[in-house]
Amino acid sequence: MTTELLFRDDAYSKTASARVVAINDRGVELDRTIFYPQGGGQAGDTGFLVRANGERIPVADTRKGEVFDSVLHVLAPGGPRPEVGEELTLDLDWARRYQLMRLHTALHVMSCVVVAPVTGGNIAPERARLDFDIDMSLLDAGKIEREVNALIARGVATETVWITDEELDARPELVKTMSVQPPRGAGRVRLLRIPGIDLQPCGGTHVANIGEIGAIRVLKIRSEGKRNKRVEIALTPDP
Ligand SMILES: [Zn+2]
Question: What pTM value is reported for the model?
Fold first, then answer.
């Protein structure tokens, strides 16, 4: 069953009410959720499902379900389980998610500083990386840091834009990430726009203003293959 994705319209929702529509071995499906399911390189959310009696059921991970736009809340093994039809309060691990949002948005900025096809990426709460199809000699950690942080300091507000599949097909230059094709299936594709800096399809969660990223540092640059030169970053100072 399709889950209403509240994070898509408001990435800052920290709590919400929802009803259990299904439970299986993989997880709990709700009618609506603020938990982002792992995808597009971004880690799935964690937090709690809070029962009416106050009992807190830990959510260890969030994954996509089998049906389009369905979400599975993965529970810790051996822990309590809610019942189908039960009304719950969702309580997101916001500190962790906010770090993911800041790092994720930082990768958008970095993809405009390192001008090369993106061949991979990952966003964890403590660090994030992009892989580029580029010559190693063109990757300078100090230069990347300075240029990314200078763009972040502009403090530009981000925007979500929707276009049709046909509009995206007509503008293939928007797709920088060769390894992750934009999510399709509903006839429309979601884009993140950072005015004057970046525009690309993305279904992840982002900060409202790039100034919220603060600043980044490059942790390491290394080769992971012929077409994968990996740049790994963290927020600085450490949150
Ligand atoms: Zn994104």
Answer: 0.93
* Selection from 157, 140, 138 nearest residue 197 by Cα: 157
C-alpha 103 to ligand 1 mean position (Å): 10
204 vs 216: CA distance, rounded Å: 19
Using an 8 Å Cβ cutoff, are 91 and 24 in contact? no
Q: What tens digit of pLDDT does each residue of 15-61 get?
A: 999 999 999 989 999 999 999 999 989 999 999 999 999 999 999 99
Query: ∠ at Cα 97 (239, 88), nearest 5°?
Result: 135
Phi, psi for 215 (deg, rounded to 5) = -155, 160
64 alpha carbon to ligand 1 midpoint, in Å? Answer: 17
Q: How far, in Å, CA of 231 to CA of 226, rounded?
A: 14
208 CA distance to ligand 1 middle (Å): 12
Q: Rounded distance, CA 195 to CA 207, Å?
A: 14
Between the CA of 232 and the centroid of ligand 1 the distance, in Å, is 16
